[in-house]
Amino acid sequence: MPVSVLSAEQEQSPAGTSVADLPLIATFEGGERYQAGIYPVIVLSGSYREMGCQYGGLMKPELNEEYSFLMDSLTNQGITREEIIEEAGQVPQFYPQRIKEIFAGMAETTGLTTDDIAFLYYGPIFLLFATPNQEAVPASCSYLAAWGDYTKGGSPILSRNWDLGDSILPLTEWYVLAIYRPNDGSNIIATWSPAGVRPETFMNNKGLFIADDNCGREDDAPETRPEFITEYYRFMFDYSDLNALEAAINGTIPDTGWIVDVAGPDEAFVYEKSTNRTVKRTGDGVIAAANHFVDPSWNLPEPPEHSLSRYSNLLRQAEEAKGMIDAEKMMEIRDVCIEDGGSKFCHSDLGGGKYSSNHQVVFEPATLTLWMNVMDKDWQKVELPSLFSNETLK
Fold first, then answer.
1. What is the mean pLDDT, run by run of 10 residues, along the chain of 394 residues?
2. Cα–Cα distance between 269 and 279 in angstroms, integer?
3. CA dihedral of residues 146, 148, 151, 154 (deg, nearest 10)
């Protein structure tokens, strides 16, 4: 985003100041805003309330623009603002206190209420299900990780696509890489999502990665449970190796079925989670996931063609590139549209409307190097180690 969109409350930063070769654009109450190509990068430090305040102050114009877009889109469909806010107010009811503190901080510095912030958090889901002629989401996301004999250096290279209907594409204007550096001894984490929206792509300073894919099944818990995706904050803040992360995933029963994509500095896994069972999948140097449970013990019907083809294409592409996969090669794999034998939705026909890979990520856990993009825009590289540094934390 251009500097001109920054709010008056932000302090302009000295020219030439940078971290990880990113220019520092503004600061707000101890938070910092950098620029990585066309994407803002915000670094938040302190308590969870303070980090929320910094997020809101550094991203105030974007958060308000995005809020207006989402609210206008829904009210234009005949839904009243009162109905929307009443529903949104239920979203954080069972959220961890840390997340509620972040919400409260954002509300303090944006001019939005905590219910408005909760609406933003779940805004894409509200929008998807209110879009005319858009059937219930038939697919969402995919994952490919390679390591060992498949990569040039043996270390894992992983990737994910976040796929949704094209009604969500306007949100690509408000993406932000957010770095949370809490002062309570927890891990430092990064999230990649539209501003204020529930992240589904997380990394932490220990080289752990977690994301998710729609499992393609109707599988809702019989009783109230915390929302599983928001538990990713806890997983990333609290766990520092794959064994501990696996125990946390196994010990958390979801509110609905998910495919959970996990990687660390040495290997990668996929967890197929229903509301009453978890199956871990491993691979001999390569693993993929789309929108169906692969393990045969589920004894499920044949998956839909769009999921099976993307899953098969990813494994075929990895096999064809065996021994040559680095970040550049992984991005090449991920940039092939499904119509051309790849896994990327490129304004593709699906579920009664157009579908696209809203964002993509390639990540090297061993070096904490990230490449990110949004649909129809270029990839951007960001070196995370200096952004993850806690030298300035009090």
1. 45 60 96 98 98 98 98 93 91 92 98 96 88 63 98 97 94 98 98 98 98 93 93 98 98 96 98 97 97 97 94 98 98 98 95 90 98 98 94 48
2. 11
3. 130
pLDDT at 342: 98
Per-residue pLDDT at 183: 97
53-55-59-61 Cα dihedral, nearest 10 degrees: -30
Please tell me the CATH superfamily of domain 142-170+208-225+240-382, with its number.
Penicillin V Acylase; Chain A (3.60.60.10)
- The enclosing H or E element of 116 equals helix 114-121
Contacts with 353 (C-beta within 8 Å, 6 or more apart), sequence order: 131, 133, 134, 135, 165, 166, 167
- In a 10 Å sphere around its CB, with 0-12 CB exposed, 13-18 middle and 19+ buried, how is residue 297 labelled? exposed
Do 265 and 155 touch, CB atoms closer than 8 A?
yes
What is the DSSP annotation of 63-88? Answer: HHHHHHHHHHHHHTTT--HHHHHHHH
- The residues, ordered by sequence, that sit 6+ positions from 92 with a Cβ below 8 Å of its Cβ are 99, 100, 103, 114, 118, 121
φ/ψ of residue 357, rounded to 5: -80, 90
Position 247: which residue type?
A: A
What Cα–Cα distance (Å) separates residue 330 from each residue in 143, 322, 326? 11, 11, 6
Q: Say which amino acid occupies 51.
A: M
CA angle 279, 281, 284 (to 5 degrees): 165
For the chain, give every domain's residue range: 142-170+208-225+240-382
Q: Which two tokens stand for residue 254?
A: 């979801």
Residues listed for the chain: 394
Q: Is the pTM of this model over 0.85?
A: yes
